[in-house]
TrEMBL record:
The protein's name: Uncharacterized protein
Amino acid sequence: MGKVYLTGNPTAKSVLESVSSSNGSPVCYDHFAFRTFGVDGHGIDSIASFFLDFGYTQRDELRIFISELLVDELNSQSQLEAEENKFIKSKKESFANSKEEEASKDKLRKQHLVLDQQQRNIQELKHSLRTTRAGMEFMQMKYYEEFSDLGKLK
């Protein structure tokens, strides 16, 4: 688990690598701790779902534990900063969603262009088939006329 987490989180990896024990040997760790904010959308559930989605199960013996900072018990300045962070995160998510929506609309426009081109190609093909059919019917008529003329010559 440590390798997976540290590979995906280079900051945590560099912190762990820079910390050493008093005798210079690497520090051994037996758990990870995450601190969340006790604000809607930023509490324990916001990070626990990540681990649950990856197959971790909730137990009494946790090697990963998640705690929650009770924002409403902080001083007013800290509460304001927490709310500002929540607002900034919300704006970033909104921006990302609008980018995804824009990309989706662009993809849909491209699909419509392809569909329109296919419809034009179908119409051209139908026209070509009608022209070919008319030409074949004309050739068939001429063939019968010539065949009929050959019969009159005898």
